[in-house]
Amino acid sequence: MFTFFGYAVGGAVLYWAARRRRLATEGFGYIVVAGICGGILGAKLMVWMGFNWQAFAASPLHMLNPHSGGRSIMGGVLGGWLAVELAKHKLGIKRSTGDLFALALPAGEAIGRIGCFLNGCCYGIPTTAFWGVEQHGALRHPTQLYSAAACAAIFGLLLYLRDRMPREGDLFRLYLILWGASRFLIEFFRENEVLYHGLSMFQWIGLELVILFSIVLWISHHRIRLNMRQTAEAN
To answer: Are 218 and 174 in contact (CB under 8 A)?
Structure first.
């Protein structure tokens, strides 16, 4: 139920943001559909390839079953982003649309994570803290609620900054940095397998997102300052 509410809230925020920037067009509708399909496929692929690859190899089409699992938020974001970029290229759309998704994604995830908490998935490691919750036979960190709170905070910050970023696309880049950093930290409290050097697969991906898009955001701002300096010198 909360997964449905998460999609509904994310969709409502996306439509509001598109209307506000006058991008609620037929072409943008195709982009949204592509993003949703790519997100669902990416979510399932990351779970199946990362944790259940033998079953995936035996029956690849089984992952299309909606009851077969596979709701990785990280895979969904990456898959959705790739699908949107491919759809934009196919439609010949060059304008950035990421800033619209930058608000919709954390809004939807903040609601959806409550569903994770109620379902008992994405649970944390055992803890003796007084706020621990009984899940899977032990008192555990409520990492689902940590994620919900982090996404709500990210949404609030990006909502405040939505008209203060100098270039289109920078808001989405900032979202990926904040989301990657929050996921990296929360993973320390989640029940996950260590992949390399004491970090899980999702932590390595989150760390890569933070580093990559921090560089991209810095380059974007550096170009703006350079253009402003050249304009001032020309005048």
So the answer is: no
Tens digit of pLDDT for each residue in 93-138? Answer: 776 777 888 898 899 889 888 888 888 888 899 999 999 999 888 9
Q: How far apart are CA 129 and CA 21, in angstroms?
A: 45
Which amino acid is residue 27, in one-letter code?
G
What is the C-alpha separation between 125 and 123, in angstroms, rounded? 7
Query: Positive or negative CA dihedral for 102, 47, 34, 7?
Result: negative
The angle that helices 170-186 and 143-161 make with each other, rounded to 10 degrees, is 160
Give pTM, 2 decimals: 0.78
Report how far residue 129's alpha carbon sits from residue 13's, in angstroms, rounded to the nearest whole number.
35
The overall average pLDDT reported for the chain is 79
**DSSP state, 124?**
B
3-state helix, strand, coil in the chain (%, to 5): 70, 5, 20
In the block, tokens 């943008």 appear at 28
At 179 the pLDDT is 92
